């Protein structure tokens, strides 16, 4: 209209030529689910501990998770990946895990953070290896995103340790239980 400039819609899609679509779909689907779940965990922790001395620390980690989720929302559109059908379940399970661990106090919330973030860092490392084996140049942008988010998750893990996560009663049992849940969530979210 008007000045003779043509209007055409902008595409947010990534060129699909030559990508291993099943691998990329699985990676983006599960990472989106994981970041969604992490957001719900921190929401649960903030509901219980938001006004405590550890509230600002939890909020800082949650803010990073919100950025991660935003990026994976964008990547889902760009790569045309459907979300896991389990999102409604992760919505509730994540919040319950966050609130439940926070009801154990600051140490309990931090123990949850350590367990989850250690699992996610390991998961991201596996994805980085997969993408490098596939083609590091072709997946350069995705590799950069995953490496940055892995580093953020490792930072959250370390913050949890600095804030007495290991002093939680039955820490090793709690950590192992949460990590088994994370492994199951990863397995299911990749596939369903």
Automatic annotation (TrEMBL):
It comes from the Eukaryota. Pathway: Cofactor biosynthesis; ubiquinone biosynthesis. The keyword Membrane applies. One of its GO terms (biological process) is regulation of gene expression. Pfam families: COQ7 (PF03232). One of its GO terms (molecular function) is 3-demethoxyubiquinol 3-hydroxylase activity. InterPro entries: Ferritin-like, Ferritin-like_SF, Ubq_synth_Coq7. The keyword Metal-binding applies. GO terms for cellular component: mitochondrial inner membrane; nucleus. Keywords: Iron, Membrane, Metal-binding, Monooxygenase, Oxidoreductase, Ubiquinone biosynthesis. This is COQ7 protein. The lineage of its organism: Eukaryota, Metazoa, Chordata, Craniata, Vertebrata.
């Amino acid at each position: 209209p008007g000045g003779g400039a043509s209007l055409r819609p902008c595409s947010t899609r990534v060129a699909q030529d030559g990508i291993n679509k099943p691998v990329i779909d699985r990676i983006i689907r599960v990472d989106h689910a994981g970041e969604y779940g992490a957001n719900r965990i921190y929401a649960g922790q903030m509901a219980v501990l938001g006004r405590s001395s550890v509230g600002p620390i939890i909020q800082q980690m949650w803010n990073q998770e919100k950025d991660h989720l935003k990026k994976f929302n964008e990547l889902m559109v760009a790569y045309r990946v459907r979300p896991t059908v389990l999102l409604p379940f992760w919505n509730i399970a994540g919040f319950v895990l966050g609130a439940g661990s926070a009801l154990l106090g600051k140490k309990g919330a931090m123990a949850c953070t350590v367990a989850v973030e250690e699992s996610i860092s390991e998961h991201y490392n596996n994805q980085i290896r997969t993408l490098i084996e596939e083609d590091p140049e072709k997946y350069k942008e995705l590799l950069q995103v995953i490496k940055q988010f892995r580093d953020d998750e490792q930072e959250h893990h370390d913050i949890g340790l600095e804030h007495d996560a290991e002093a939680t009663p039955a820490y090793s049992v709690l950590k192992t239980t949460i990590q088994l849940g994370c492994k199951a969530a990863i397995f299911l979210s990749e596939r369903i």
